[in-house]
Amino acid sequence: MDRLSSTDLATNNILPYIAIEKPWTMTKGHCHCGQTEWDVDLVDANTVLCHCDACKMLSGGGFTLNQILPKKNFKLTKGNLSTYSYKGDSGKSVDCYYCPNCTSHAYHHQEVMGDDIVVRTIFLEGGKDMKPAAEVYGKARLGWVPEVATTFETMPPS
Known about the structure:
Number of strands: 11
Protein backbone atom coordinates (compact mmCIF):
# COMPACT_ATOMS: atom_id res chain seq x y z
CA MET A 1 0.00 0.00 0.00
CA ASP A 2 1.05 3.62 -0.49
CA ARG A 3 2.80 5.40 2.37
CA LEU A 4 1.73 8.81 3.63
CA SER A 5 4.29 11.54 4.25
CA SER A 6 5.30 11.97 7.88
CA THR A 7 3.35 15.22 8.23
CA ASP A 8 0.07 13.99 6.74
CA LEU A 9 -1.26 12.32 9.89
CA ALA A 10 0.04 15.02 12.23
CA THR A 11 -1.61 17.75 10.16
CA ASN A 12 -4.88 15.86 9.52
CA ASN A 13 -4.14 15.60 5.78
CA ILE A 14 -5.02 11.92 5.45
CA LEU A 15 -8.29 12.28 3.58
CA PRO A 16 -6.81 13.72 0.37
CA TYR A 17 -4.95 10.40 0.02
CA ILE A 18 -7.75 8.04 0.99
CA ALA A 19 -11.42 8.56 0.24
CA ILE A 20 -13.35 7.69 3.39
CA GLU A 21 -17.06 8.42 3.45
CA LYS A 22 -18.15 9.93 6.78
CA PRO A 23 -21.92 9.97 7.02
CA TRP A 24 -21.67 10.94 10.70
CA THR A 25 -20.33 13.94 12.56
CA MET A 26 -21.83 14.04 16.06
CA THR A 27 -21.91 10.76 17.95
CA LYS A 28 -22.13 9.47 21.50
CA GLY A 29 -19.81 7.14 23.33
CA HIS A 30 -19.91 5.21 26.57
CA CYS A 31 -17.73 2.88 28.58
CA HIS A 32 -18.41 -0.84 29.01
CA CYS A 33 -20.36 -0.46 32.28
CA GLY A 34 -22.24 2.71 31.25
CA GLN A 35 -20.99 4.77 34.21
CA THR A 36 -19.34 7.31 31.87
CA GLU A 37 -20.69 8.78 28.64
CA TRP A 38 -19.46 11.39 26.20
CA ASP A 39 -20.34 13.26 23.02
CA VAL A 40 -17.86 13.56 20.17
CA ASP A 41 -17.89 15.78 17.10
CA LEU A 42 -16.07 13.82 14.39
CA VAL A 43 -16.13 16.56 11.76
CA ASP A 44 -12.34 17.06 12.03
CA ALA A 45 -11.48 13.46 12.97
CA ASN A 46 -9.23 10.94 11.28
CA THR A 47 -9.77 7.22 11.85
CA VAL A 48 -6.46 5.53 12.63
CA LEU A 49 -5.54 1.93 13.42
CA CYS A 50 -2.67 1.75 15.95
CA HIS A 51 -0.34 -1.23 16.35
CA CYS A 52 1.92 0.21 19.07
CA ASP A 53 2.76 -2.05 22.01
CA ALA A 54 1.28 0.42 24.53
CA CYS A 55 -2.14 0.32 22.82
CA LYS A 56 -2.00 -3.47 22.62
CA MET A 57 -1.13 -3.79 26.31
CA LEU A 58 -3.70 -1.22 27.49
CA SER A 59 -6.51 -2.70 25.39
CA GLY A 60 -5.60 -6.38 25.61
CA GLY A 61 -6.02 -6.68 21.84
CA GLY A 62 -3.88 -6.88 18.72
CA PHE A 63 -4.44 -3.19 17.82
CA THR A 64 -6.77 -0.28 18.56
CA LEU A 65 -9.01 1.73 16.23
CA ASN A 66 -9.01 5.42 17.14
CA GLN A 67 -10.38 8.82 16.19
CA ILE A 68 -7.81 11.62 16.24
CA LEU A 69 -9.63 14.89 16.83
CA PRO A 70 -9.34 18.26 18.59
CA LYS A 71 -9.91 18.03 22.37
CA LYS A 72 -12.64 20.69 22.05
CA ASN A 73 -14.69 18.11 20.08
CA PHE A 74 -14.97 15.79 23.13
CA LYS A 75 -17.46 16.46 25.93
CA LEU A 76 -17.91 14.20 28.95
CA THR A 77 -21.68 14.08 29.64
CA LYS A 78 -21.94 11.55 32.47
CA GLY A 79 -19.64 10.37 35.24
CA ASN A 80 -15.97 11.05 35.76
CA LEU A 81 -12.76 9.77 34.21
CA SER A 82 -9.61 8.69 36.04
CA THR A 83 -6.14 9.25 34.61
CA TYR A 84 -3.14 7.02 34.06
CA SER A 85 0.06 8.55 32.63
CA TYR A 86 3.18 7.10 31.06
CA LYS A 87 6.03 8.26 28.82
CA GLY A 88 5.55 7.61 25.09
CA ASP A 89 8.26 6.84 22.55
CA SER A 90 8.94 10.58 22.29
CA GLY A 91 9.80 10.69 25.99
CA LYS A 92 6.81 12.97 26.53
CA SER A 93 3.70 12.29 28.58
CA VAL A 94 0.72 10.25 27.41
CA ASP A 95 -2.35 10.67 29.64
CA CYS A 96 -5.02 7.94 29.45
CA TYR A 97 -8.55 8.86 30.58
CA TYR A 98 -10.66 5.89 31.62
CA CYS A 99 -13.78 4.89 33.55
CA PRO A 100 -12.82 4.33 37.21
CA ASN A 101 -15.27 1.41 37.43
CA CYS A 102 -14.73 -0.75 34.32
CA THR A 103 -11.41 0.83 33.14
CA SER A 104 -12.60 1.39 29.55
CA HIS A 105 -10.30 3.99 27.99
CA ALA A 106 -12.40 6.84 26.57
CA TYR A 107 -9.43 8.78 25.18
CA HIS A 108 -5.73 9.47 25.43
CA HIS A 109 -3.83 12.73 25.14
CA GLN A 110 -0.28 12.60 23.86
CA GLU A 111 1.73 15.70 24.74
CA VAL A 112 3.39 15.60 21.31
CA MET A 113 -0.04 15.94 19.62
CA GLY A 114 -0.79 19.39 21.01
CA ASP A 115 -4.56 19.97 21.35
CA ASP A 116 -5.55 16.72 19.61
CA ILE A 117 -6.71 13.62 21.47
CA VAL A 118 -7.05 9.93 20.58
CA VAL A 119 -10.60 8.64 21.16
CA ARG A 120 -11.25 4.88 21.19
CA THR A 121 -13.58 4.15 18.28
CA ILE A 122 -15.14 0.95 19.62
CA PHE A 123 -16.94 2.88 22.39
CA LEU A 124 -18.68 5.21 19.89
CA GLU A 125 -22.12 4.67 18.40
CA GLY A 126 -21.42 3.47 14.87
CA GLY A 127 -17.81 2.71 15.80
CA LYS A 128 -17.98 -0.82 14.39
CA ASP A 129 -18.64 0.68 10.94
CA MET A 130 -15.74 3.16 10.97
CA LYS A 131 -12.84 2.05 8.78
CA PRO A 132 -9.25 3.27 9.22
CA ALA A 133 -7.84 5.92 6.89
CA ALA A 134 -4.30 5.07 8.03
CA GLU A 135 -2.31 2.76 10.29
CA VAL A 136 0.44 3.82 12.70
CA TYR A 137 3.21 1.75 14.25
CA GLY A 138 3.07 -0.67 11.33
CA LYS A 139 6.48 -1.94 12.45
CA ALA A 140 4.77 -3.45 15.54
CA ARG A 141 1.85 -5.03 13.65
CA LEU A 142 1.33 -8.64 14.72
CA GLY A 143 2.23 -11.07 11.94
CA TRP A 144 -1.32 -12.38 11.56
CA VAL A 145 -2.89 -8.90 11.21
CA PRO A 146 -3.23 -7.77 7.57
CA GLU A 147 -2.48 -4.23 6.41
CA VAL A 148 -5.82 -2.56 5.67
CA ALA A 149 -4.87 1.09 5.10
CA THR A 150 -1.94 3.30 4.21
CA THR A 151 0.67 2.69 6.91
CA PHE A 152 3.30 4.63 8.85
CA GLU A 153 6.06 2.52 10.37
CA THR A 154 5.86 4.72 13.53
CA MET A 155 3.84 7.71 14.67
CA PRO A 156 4.69 10.78 12.55
CA PRO A 157 6.22 13.72 14.40
CA SER A 158 3.88 16.60 15.20
